[in-house]
Amino acid sequence: MRSFRIGILVFIGILSVASCEKDDICVEGDTPLLVIEFYNISDTSALKTVPTLRVVGVGKTVTVNTVADRTALSTISIPLKTDADATSFIIISGSASAEDGSETGNIDTINFSYQRLEDFLSRGCGFVVNYDNLQASLSTDTDNWIKDIEIIRSQVTNSDSTHVKIFH
After folding, report:
1. Residues 14-49: pLDDT tens digits?
2. Could you tell me which residues come within 8 angstroms of residue 161 by beta carbon, excluding any fewer than 6 positions away?
3. Beta carbons within 8 Å of 84's beta carbon, 6+ residues apart
4. How far apart are CA 86 and CA 136, in angstroms?
5. What Å distances lie between residue 92 and 11, 16, 46, 69, 112, CA to CA?
6. Is 55 exposed, middle or buried (0-12, 13-18, 19+ CB in 10 A)?
7. Which of 88, 85, 87, 65 is nearest to 77 (CA)?
8. Using an 8 Å Cβ cutoff, are 77 and 34 in contact?
9. Residue 153: what pLDDT?
10. Up-side HSE of residue 100: CA atoms within 13 Å toward CB?
11. C-beta separation of 139 from 112 below 8 A
12. For residue 120, what pLDDT is reported?
């Protein structure tokens, strides 16, 4: 009788362990955003807002959804492509629409290049992409409002700190 009780206890123990599910909830994070701060070209230590800022990915018809459209901002966080080693953005200062719907603000284009590093977080989160060797270049035109770009952190592994300073 005693071995029967022990057998039942072992059987119940095995059932309770076997019925546990793996936790597939992801709380560890996502692919980080690129954090950009805008600074005064005359006083390079002072943040300076960009009036009615608009950010659009090159080749896209909608604004970047991580940036409030046409607002005065001194800091933005934008997504880099996870399937390519470069991302370009149209960044517009003083954005407004003409009667015909065309853009009337000062348009500059910034090109970011990087190396993608896939990192497996967990079964629930899967892979995230971090970025290394971040570089930036400004497409020159006759009226650039962006005067200089400085990479502060060439590795993008989180969205907690500034990666790029833009001077205007």
Report:
1. 655 555 545 567 766 689 999 999 999 999 999 999
2. 35, 152, 153
3. none
4. 10
5. 67, 59, 20, 10, 16
6. buried
7. 65
8. yes
9. 97
10. 3
11. no
12. 85
Distance of CA 38 to the CA centre of its chain: 16
Q: How far apart are CA 11 and CA 8, in angstroms?
A: 5
Q: Give which of 147, 167, 164 is closest to 35, Cα–Cα.
A: 164
pTM of the model: 0.83
**Residue positions counted in the chain:** 168
Q: What is the pLDDT of residue 101?
A: 85
Alpha carbon of 110 to those of 6, 45, 55, 72: distances in Å? 71, 22, 10, 19
| Integer angstrom CA distances of residue 145 from 70, 94, 136 | 16, 10, 16
* pLDDT per position as a tens digit, 102-145: 999 999 999 999 999 998 878 877 889 999 999 999 999 999 99
The per-residue pLDDT for range 55-69, each reduced to its tens digit, is 999 999 999 999 999
* CA 68 from centre of chain: 14
